[in-house]
């Protein structure tokens, strides 16, 4: 009987701790939601803090889902806006989004699992594992071979950067059709010496997928469900393409950059390892936590600590066996971005410190928004993963700016862009959005919203400009 008052006391204390904790977390979330900051800041200007819903409206992003991991546990997760504006379905923490290229580091666990089982070797020619299809031998593969390690680290010399997906009405190619260029992308082959350079290749991950299927004797979606997703606890995740009806009870549609709904609600991706994962931020948080726990000594993890340490060892361009890597030692960060038609996401996690952030959006314009959300989260929790870039701008007179006005053409695509002078600024309408350019020098300009860099060409007379040091437009009038 003496224990009874103590039990009542403990029950009272515990029952009253939870609401206080929930209130504290809700306050944290509210602060973060109202503290988004732009990815480019102008030196000397005050930092504007913005509301998440207003930024969603600004970028025309209908829905967002976020999960935050702190000290090895999910601190909070929340959905925002709409999964489908047509039927007013709202986003919640279990709404499935297409992961895009975040599919790659998760799918990479399948290869590492087969390595631990002794079924494959990371450093052997993958042609010895492939059945019914082989990587064509050529001058580049005479002395160096395509290996699983090189496929995972994007150093295999394989072609095809990414995949556009297929509409619901399109015929669905087999994986061999994709590899042979009989789908909607070119043939996948080696066109530079394996191991010589880093070059991002979704095509390489499609070859990896074929290896997993041929060695395991199982379709990738079945192998991943049985050996990776289920053991980690990722119950709201699947590599099914097209996705089965059983997963469509709580699923997000996809949206173009102008906010319009993609025809058929979303695209399908037969390139499952490269782009085919449907998941949630909370499930991706479990993936991050699994890796973190194994590094801390978890004995019954999906992989051994030794294998995970190899996975997080930097190769060319700071790439691991699946994820991208940055920072060093205790501050090591692993992660990956993801972009499919109408979905844009990002995942970053500390390997050793137990923290992570996953942001998933259902729109083509979600990239900048995701970074603004991350800016707020990183600042609130004091995680020095990344800070907004601070730049200096200069003043140029209208007379100085006039020489940049006129029409410019991107010949390869027949695109014409006109630069105008409006209220003391160069402005232009482009496929990247409406640009309002700030001068950083007499030839270098930046659009703060889209983080688009414009470098004008020509010494005395302007002849054209470069966009983000990639696309060259020539002045035509």
Can you walk me through this structure?
The chain is an alpha+beta fold. It folds into three domains: 1-33; 97-389, 3-Layer(aba) Sandwich (Beta-lactamase), CATH 3.40.710; 398-475, Lipocalin. The protein has twelve helices and 19 strands. The chain has helices at residues 3-33, 52-59, 103-116, 148-152, 175-179, 202-216, 220-232, 272-275, 281-295, 305-311, 366-381, 398-402, and strands at residues 40-42, 63-70, 73-84, 89-90, 97-98, 278-279, 324-326, 333-340, 343-350, 356-361, 389-391, 406-410, 415-422, 425-430, 433-439, 444-447, 452-457, 464-467, 471-475. The strands form four sheets. The chain has an eight-stranded antiparallel barrel. Strands 4-3-2-10-9-8-7 form a seven-stranded antiparallel β-sheet, sandwiched between helices. Helix 1 crosses helix 11 (366-381) and helix 3 (103-116) runs parallel beside helix 6 (202-216). The longest helix has 31 residues, at 3-33. It is globular. The protein starts with a helix and ends with a strand.
The CATH architecture of the largest domain would be 3-Layer(aba) Sandwich
Characterize the biggest β-sheet: 8 strands, antiparallel, barrel
The domain count comes to: 3
* Beta-strand residue fraction: 15-25%
Q: Indicate the structural class.
A: alpha+beta
């Amino acid at each position: 009987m003496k224990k009874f008052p103590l039990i009542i006391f403990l029950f009272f204390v515990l029952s009253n701790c939870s609401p206080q904790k929930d209130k504290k977390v809700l306050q944290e979330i509210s602060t973060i939601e109202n503290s988004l900051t732009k990815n480019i800041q102008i030196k000397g200007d005050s930092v504007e803090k913005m509301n998440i819903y207003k930024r969603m409206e600004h970028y025309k992003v209908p829905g967002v889902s976020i999960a935050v991991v702190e000290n090895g546990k999910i601190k909070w997760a929340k959905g925002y806006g709409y999964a489908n504006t047509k039927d007013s379905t709202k986003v919640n923490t279990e709404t499935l989004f297409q992961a895009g290229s975040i599919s790659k580091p998760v799918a990479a666990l399948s290869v590492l699992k087969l390595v631990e089982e002794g079924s494959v070797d990371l450093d052997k020619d993958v042609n010895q594992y492939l059945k019914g299809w082989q990587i064509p031998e050529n001058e580049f593969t005479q002395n160096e071979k395509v290996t699983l390690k090189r496929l995972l680290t994007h150093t295999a010399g394989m072609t095809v950067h990414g995949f556009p997906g297929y509409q619901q009405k399109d015929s669905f190619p087999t994986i061999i059709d994709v590899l042979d260029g009989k789908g909607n992308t070119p043939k996948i082959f080696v066109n530079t010496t394996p191991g010589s350079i880093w070059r991002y290749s979704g095509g390489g991950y499609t070859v990896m997928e074929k290896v997993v299927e041929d060695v395991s004797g199982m379709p990738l979606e079945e192998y991943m469900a049985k050996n990776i997703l289920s053991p980690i606890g990722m119950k709201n995740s699947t590599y099914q393409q097209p996705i089965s009806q059983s997963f469509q009870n709580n699923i997000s549609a996809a949206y173009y950059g102008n906010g319009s709904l993609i025809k058929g609600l979303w695209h399908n991706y037969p390139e499952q390892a490269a782009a085919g994962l449907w998941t949630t931020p909370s499930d991706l948080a479990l993936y991050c936590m699994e890796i973190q726990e194994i590094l801390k000594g978890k004995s019954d993890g999906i992989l051994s600590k030794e294998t995970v340490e190899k996975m997080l060892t930097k190769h060319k361009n700071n790439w691991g066996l699946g994820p991208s890597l940055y920072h060093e030692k205790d501050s090591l960060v692993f992660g990956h971005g993801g972009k499919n038609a109408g979905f844009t996401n990002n995942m970053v996690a500390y390997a050793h410190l137990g923290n992570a952030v996953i942001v998933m959006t259902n729109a083509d314009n979600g990239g900048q928004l995701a970074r603004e959300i991350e800016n707020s989260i990183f600042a609130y929790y004091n995680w020095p993963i990344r800070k907004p870039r601070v730049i200096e701008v200069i003043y140029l007179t209208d007379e100085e700016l006039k020489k940049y006005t006129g029409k410019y053409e991107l010949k390869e695509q027949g695109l014409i862009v006109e630069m105008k002078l409006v209220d003391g600024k160069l402005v232009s309408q482009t496929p990247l959005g409406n640009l309002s350019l700030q001068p950083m020098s007499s030839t270098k300009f930046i659009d703060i919203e889209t983080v688009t860099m414009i470098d004008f060409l020509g010494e005395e007379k302007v002849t054209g400009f470069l966009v983000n040091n990639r696309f060259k437009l020539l002045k035509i009038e």
